[in-house]
Structure formats: structure tokens, C-alpha cells
Amino acid sequence: MKILVLGPGAREHAIVLALLAEDAHHDVVCAPGNAGIAASGVETPALDYTDPGAVAEFVRERGFDLVVIGPEAPLVAGVADPLRAAGVPVFGPNQDAAELEGSKAFAKRIMDAAAVPTGRAARVASPAEAGAVLDEFGAPYVVKADGLAAGKGVLVTSDRDAALAHVATWAPHGDVLVEEFLDGQEVSLFFFADGHDVLPLSPAQDYKRIFDGDEGPNTGGMGAYSPLPWVADDFVAEITRTVALPTVRQLEAEGTPFVGLLYCGLIVTAAGVRVIEFNARFGDPETQVVLARLESPLSQYLLAAATGTLAAQPEPRFSDEPAVIVVVASEGYPGDVTTGRPITGITAAEQLAGVHVVHAATARDADGGWVATGGRVLGVVARGESFAEARELAYSAVSEISLEGSQHRTDIAARVA
Questions:
Q1: 3-class DSSP state for residue 356?
Q2: Which residue range or ranges hold the ATP-grasp domain (predicted)?
Q3: Per residue in 191-236, pLDDT tens?
Q4: Between the CA of residue 58 and those of 31, 41, 228, 414, what are the distances in Å?
Q5: pLDDT grade, residue 150 (50/70/90)?
Q6: What 3-state DSSP class applies to 176?
Q7: pLDDT at res. 174
Q8: What predicted TM-score, i.e. pTM, was given to this entire model?
Q9: In b/e form, how buried is each residue of 128-147, taking b as 16+ CB within 10 angstroms?
Q10: How far is CA 333 from CA 87, 170, 288, 365, in A?
Q11: CATH number of this structure's domain 2-91
């Protein structure tokens, strides 16, 4: 197939690598891609991937068989809409269905309508409104920006003043949700969705805070591992039945069929599993470990979802070998980051058996060397016969990489190794 992957990050690098690893040969293009994707031998044309018109014209000119939309921004911008209207198979929801991620208030309404288990939430427009809700729900306080915030719109704190300040920061940009605090282990579970049916991938757990021990501010994700040996044997089946399928069927009933990747952000509490959030695309960095274990052809499921034929597909197969990813970030992340610094050791890291490196924010300098161009720079992915082996390989590979001032967590997958 001739496949266009849209997006510039490590998630898209992981998708591209999975497509390239299939037995069938695909002509894969990633726009705009990044330097690491280009180094994988894939064309990375410059394209405004959030502009529906520009993307539609590019696809018309090049004649792609399938378009895979990676990040949330083009989905919420409606990039899928003109493509689907033109008859192009698209893996990614239309603009209306993408509101499942674009608006947390919309997601809560869909969950309520579909009887999906989730925590209490209240929509507020100012700190004055928020105060009473914070007092009703009690500490710890959970405050979320309603719209997209690149993983930085969520605050969990026991400091009431900090919670009110977070409301004040985000309220000018739209409504804010105050939610009930849910205590437990978090799980990311992805589903392929074709507007009516769903098929599950393997669960993963990611690490959102910047520092070890889940300390410090939220980030886009500092690491992840898969599978999850501590979830019940029927966990995936339960979430399919109680969360994913009801959500997709509710959206279908409302005339906004969800086609693409339904990301269920879950928490396992003493009272049962609850949904924290939905995303409308593959999560980063969980995608990197889930796809590292995928044995079925990824393209088969992307196309089946895009063409409404998931019911005819078997459930995807996964390796029993665990996978771990450790994210290497620039100095200052997730605040003001220092960029432009050289990176060495990537080749040495990838020479370790079972290790590969995905690029999130890198470029080539004039001499062909690597430099960091953003906050999360690299993801070091390792697969091993056990969690201990995969984790040891990942950190051995990280130790080969040098980036002045870089930071990474040292406790990824420690609880299962």
C-alpha cells in the first residue's frame, strides 16, 4: 500500500517503523516527519499537517491508499473530513468525533450517555465558580483544561490555592473541569475503531510526571511499559464491554462515528475501573512499547478500521516479551527548554540487542551530527525476555546517549522488573 502518516513526533516514528517491519512492502511517506524518520529511509515532505485543505491536495496529488493521522491537533482541526469525503481511507476520526479528546466536557457527556464508569466532574468558568466545587469534592484536587493542552492542562494538587490558580490560568482559554480525585494504578488501553466495532491492543502504563516517584509537573510522558502483569485476566474484555464499545456505539448513535484509535485512559480503583480521559489517537510514549510487541501487521488493522471492516479481523497478536521505553528530555523540560545541543551515542545505543531509538525532536547539524530541537528528544525502546531484562537494556542504551543537561526518569517499569 501507499501510506501517508501525518505527524512530526516519536509516535509517528514508531508507527512508521511498524509499517516498515511488515512482510508486505509499503510505500510509506511521513509528513512532515522528523530527522529520525528520514534517517529510517522514509520520505518526509514539508506539509502543514494541521491544514485540511493542504493535506487533501497533497493526498489527491500523490494518490495514497491510506492516510494515518498521528497527533491530536490535525484531528481536532478536521483534517480527516475532506479526505473521507473524497473517498480516501483515513485512520483518524472526523472533527466532530475528535471532540472526544478536544473537549473533556464533551467526553464526560458521552460517558454519561453511554453509562461508562468515570469520576464526578463539574464545569467551571472562573476561580469563583471553582471554589465551591473544590470544597465539595475535597482534596486532592483535580483541575483540567477543557481543550487540548499538550499534556500540561491537568493539575493534581492538595493545595487549594494552586488549584484555583490553575483555573485562573486556563479559564481565559475556555471552560475548566474540576474532577473527583481517583486513586489507583493508571492504565492506557488502545482500541482500533471503525465507527461501529472495536478491537483491543495490549495495555500499557505510562509515567506522566517529570521526576522519579511521580513527582513534579505533568509532561507528555516520560516512559512506559507493556504488558501489565498486574491486571486481571479479563481486564481487556471488561474494558471492551463497559467502556470502548459503549462509547463508540454512543458516538455512532449521535451521528458522529468514531473511526481511528480510541485511547482509553483508565484508573483501577478499589471501587472498580474508571475512565480518566479519552484520546482520539495513539498515545505517546505508550505506542512505542505497544507496537514494539505487535506481531500482527499494523497496516491490516489501520485499513480495516478506515474501511469499516474490523468485524472480519481477528484480535491483534502480541509478543509475550515485555517492552520498556525511557524518554530522554532536554534541560528545562517541561518548562522552557534548552535546544540546539549535540547528541551522541544513538548508534551505540541501537547496537544493543532488542533496542531501537525513536526520535521526537532532533535535527542534523551541518556536519551530519544530531542536535536536540525540543523538550522530549528521544525514546529508547527495549524488548527482553523479562521485564528486568527489557528495563536493563533500556537503561544501558540510555547510558550510551549523551546530551548536555538531559534528564530522564530512572524508575520506569521498576515496579514490575
A1: strand
A2: 108-307
A3: 999 999 999 999 999 999 999 999 998 899 999 999 999 999 999 9
A4: 10, 20, 40, 45
A5: low
A6: strand
A7: 79
A8: 0.93
A9: ebbbebbeebeeebbbbbbb
A10: 41, 20, 20, 22
A11: 3.40.50.20
Amino acid sitting at position 18: A
Task: Identify the pLDDT of residue 125.
Answer: 85
Q: What's the DSSP call for residue 204? A: B
Give the cell for residue 23: 512482510
Domain map of the chain by residue range? 2-91, 124-174, 184-312, 323-403
Fold of 184-312: D-amino Acid Aminotransferase; Chain A, domain 1 (3.30.470)
DSSP 241: I
- pLDDT (0 to 100) of residue 34: 97
**What DSSP element (H or E) covers 347?**
helix 346-350
Residue 299 phi/psi, 5-degree rounding, is -60, -35
Cα separation, 281 vs 300, in Å, equals 17
Residue 75 corresponds to which cell in the numbers above? Answer: 484531528
Q: What is the 3-state secondary structure (H, E, C) of 244-303?
A: HHHHHHHHHHCCCCCEEEEEEEEEEECCEEEEEEEECCCCCCHHHHHHHHECCCHHHHHH
Residues 54 and 375: their CA atoms lie apart, in Å, by: 27
State the fold for domain 323-403: Glycinamide Ribonucleotide Synthetase; Chain A, domain 4 (3.90.600)
